């Protein structure tokens, strides 16, 4: 067969030159910018139910409830019979976060966890992989003989979400599947407090090992608190973990109150800053707070309206960039707040994953700083050891926008990226 067009004699890839290296989905620590997440791998089954349904199965509303395998089968059978199930989604607070990160950054991330060694069509593992970004590197997952977890998200008419969780083998992750080199090369490690519920399971020690590797290699650690009930049960152990390992602590207002005893979100964030470098606190209709530290000599005053609450004029220095407290000679606390984007969605179908979306935006900014520092180490952006690329105020805007995208859809994960971030006058401080 004769192909159309004129033939060129010159090879496109001369045989005398090395063959081009094809892109790989597996993370290369010496070349890639990425974050690492450690999670209980779980699939969310989303269903709309009545309060009476929760009472029937003794499920506490608004909390994360562990149920045995038999109860989970009963719940699932009734939901199927009543046609209450709206969809299956890959879940897990950290799984959501790193998926969203890879969508936002259009770049790689790594997941530590377990996965069914044999994946059947329609199984929880099948749904998990189908709903996770292809840029999430799953090559380091630990194979297990059983199922990953199944979390049934029960949404009542008032919009409140309640979880009934059948763990499966999701807590069997062991220390053999926490490669130090992958953690050492990461821009950040993100994990959650849920493994503290399972003292006798391998996943807790796997999490501790990942935290130790992060501390040894100066990798920032982000921790999410999970649920109010978990914080109340493990408060002392959680505080010790936070003080020893955590850089960024993410939570909602009720979890912050359980940790500090303070009902005012700003007061709670102020208290928590005694132990960590950054606090991301989502407060529902009140909006979002991002609080941290910066160097006194590098503080930048906002041009936004000044706000007062538990602290007077608390957002005055929100155009500053976050720094680790230990990296500051004269550290000051910085607070930023933002109202819900566009006042919040007209109708919130599901709040599951909104906080995870906000954290993924913050982690994207942290990894952007890591990437830029590697690529342009002499840039004025790196005159000091900043934790993030942007200011407190700008990160708030980004995180708020991502949360909004989660709230307007009926899924806990982003299905696409966002439009480019809005520019603001404060960027002029750092784009010189």
TrEMBL record:
EC code(s) of this entry: 2.7.1.73
Domain Carbohydrate kinase PfkB residue range list: 134-295
Enzyme class: transferase
GO molecular function, one term: guanosine kinase activity
Pathway: Purine metabolism; GMP biosynthesis via salvage pathway; Purine metabolism; IMP biosynthesis via salvage pathway; IMP from inosine: step 1/1
Organism: Marinomonas algarum
Protein name (record): Guanosine-inosine kinase
Domain of life of the organism encoding this protein: Bacteria
Family: Belongs to the carbohydrate kinase PfkB family.
Gene3D superfamilies on file: 3.40.1190.20
GO BP annotations listed: GMP salvage; IMP salvage; purine ribonucleoside salvage
Keywords annotated in UniProt: ATP-binding, Kinase, Magnesium, Nucleotide-binding, Purine salvage, Transferase
Purpose: Catalyzes the phosphorylation of guanosine and inosine to GMP and IMP, respectively.
Protein residues bound to ATP: 282-287, 355, 400
